[in-house]
Amino acid sequence: MPVPSDLAVRYQRDGYYVPIDAVAPKVARGVLDRIDRVTPAEQARASHPWLYKSYLLLRPIADLARAPGVLDAIEAVLGPDIVAISADIWIKEPGTGRHVSWHQDAQYYAIKPMAVVNAWVALTDATVENGCMRFVPGSHTSGLRRHVNRPNSNNMLSHGQTLDPPVDEARAEAAPLRAGQMSLHHGYLAHASGPNDTDGRRVGIAIKYIPASARPTGGPRMTGLLVRGRDHGHFGLERAPAVDFDDAAVAEHTRVMAPHAATRYMNF
């Protein structure tokens, strides 16, 4: 799948790009099917939330994080040496009121330079009606802004993190996607998503990438999955699973997640 010719320019200008054809719809359906077949027994094997860093437990998600259609677009923005630092599953069931408040991803990651790129890969169609992502163009140029924690049972963020002062929602643009497409956005970009007001599900995976040349600046040691190019030695390297939820996969997920449990996984 060819990389859009204007991707790098628009990403630098706006802080995001949408849509990008990442994988075939049947691939997206296959990943979704495996997520739906995760059993209670498999979930119980994980000592930490299995929806976080899910590429360490599920081989289809590790394969998605390394898919050429995804990485070619990431390379256009970050360069050839790429590390995936998370792959988190986001599910909005119909009529639940689940939403994501306005925030920046950069608050989660202590690295320099701040070059986190979030690839949001749609496993189902994401529409305005079912709560697709919304972005404020150009908001990545203001750096890291103040957040306050406003816990809410319907807010999908673990602490209810919310930008304060609030964003000007009149400037926000919706980012609808078809299954198999993705959006990219910068770690400083203000973004949110509304509730699912339809009778169908909205499911996607947020895969966050950094250049291997970036350096951690604090917190527990960050680790990641080298997905393209060479390692620069700044992060601990993770191992993708050979078999879903087997002993080795669960042990690797536990090893990686345990140092971050005290902060409720705010910094991977």
Q: How would you explain this protein's 3D organization?
A:
The protein has helices spanning 7-14, 25-36, 40-45, 59-65, 68-78, 247-257, and strands at residues 16-21, 82-92, 100-103, 111-112, 117-122, 133-135, 147-149, 161-163, 173-175, 181-186, 191-193, 202-211, 215-216, 223-228, 236-237. With 268 residues, it is of the alpha+beta class. The longest helix is centred in the first third of the chain and has 12 residues, at 25-36. The model has no long low-confidence stretch (mean pLDDT 94).
From the structure above, extract its key features.
268 residues; alpha+beta; seven-stranded mixed beta sheet
Topology diagram in text:
Elements: H1 7-14, E1 16-21, H2 25-36, H3 40-45, H4 59-65, H5 68-78, E2 82-92, E3 100-103, E4 111-112, E5 117-122, E6 133-135, E7 147-149, E8 161-163, E9 173-175, E10 181-186, E11 191-193, E12 202-211, E13 215-216, E14 223-228, E15 236-237, H6 247-257
Mean pLDDT: 94
How many beta-strand segments? 15
Strand order in space, largest sheet = 1-10-5-12-2-14-15
Question: Number of helical runs?
Answer: 6
Radius of gyration: 17 Å
Which class do the helix and strand fractions yield? alpha+beta
Low-confidence spans: pLDDT under 50, at least 5 residues? none
In terms of DSSP E residues, the strand content is 25-35%
What does the largest sheet look like? 7 strands, mixed
N-to-C SSE string, H for helix and E for strand: HEHHHHEEEEEEEEEEEEEEH
Helicity level, as a percent range?
10-25%
- Give the N-terminus to C-terminus distance in angstroms: 30 Å
Give the overall silhouette. Answer: globular
